[in-house]
Amino acid sequence: MRRPLEIKAEEASVRSVVSLTSALETLSSMQIAKTKNKVLISNQFFDEVWNIYKQIRVDVMFNYGRSVDETPIDKELLILITAKGGLSGDIDNRLIRKVVEHYDETKNDILVIGHHGALKLKQSHIDHTYYFDLPEHDYVNVDPLMDITRKYAKSRIYYQNYISLSQQEIKDVDLSDVVSSKGRVADLSTLSEDMVSEKTYIFEPGSYAVASYLENSILRLTISQFIYDSRLAQVASRFKAMSAAKERSITNASELHTEYNRSKRSQVDTRLKESMAGLKKLRAGGAE
Amino acid sequence: MADEKPQPEITEPAQTTPRSNGKLTMAIKIYAPFKIYYEGEGYSLSAVNATGPFDILPHHHNFLCMLVPCEIKVQTPDGEKVIKIHRALMHVKADSVTVFVDV
Known about the structure:
heterodimer; A: alpha/beta; 6 helices; 60% helix; B: ATP Synthase, domain 1
């Protein structure tokens, strides 16, 4: 059995892990509330822009805002949105596993957002072609990313989706499909009065220029929305990981405390036994 | 005696336009994904697009345009509000003006 002092020292170090994980859990909980609120506000904004886009482009093919004479690279660009650092649970590992299943060196190029994802990808022996830091501020400038996306024939986004505090999932979508499906209107007859057309609206500088601008805006908003969703899922995953770590360290500390008590009692028992034995010996010596 | 020409009957538009201090107003919202720059009534809104500077007044025709970097000036019952923008989309419909900033 280990010595009580040794166990006590280990228990103290586990108790400090409890305090640390507890602080990180509280911090994540605050971040979740803040990020969730921001996602809700931004979704309202995005929905209004989507609504205009729906009305203006019911039969236009989405082409990433490319002009007709631009020839795209005949590869699929995989865009990975990951956390900027560790302490975000297993969410990035799950995303990388999903990418690795799909990845084909000859058919794909990879763009990573977030340092942690780039690191995990390297551990899987896959090199990324482009890298961006995960934006921390509210305003996300996705223009450099859009310039890259436009070069490719197809783009697929791997992102993290928040379902609940305990559940986050990894999703992958074709960028073109998601824009088309969101812009598609289920029932065209519902649009008859609100339709945005040259008959009912004045466009400046012109209808094609506005439609093209909107197409770029929608691509920009779609990517931004995925980044905001991923950020929310990452803080939720961090909260989950910190809660689990806290629970584990509390159990560990409690087990160590029991072990310490047992060891202490055992030490006292041993000393008592030794004293009794010594006493017996002394009494036996006195009797002789 | 010449027949008196019937005077055209002045009628209010079917859709009543809101007024403030006796002046016609319109609903104006200028916002970005995380920030509302202005939301409320306004008498007019001035901005700049690729064609040049322009004003939006109540009863404006449905209008969709891209704004170039400029200062949006809104005349409100509380005075003039000036909002500097880099990039925006403006949508005008039924006396409601929405400016989507940073799209």
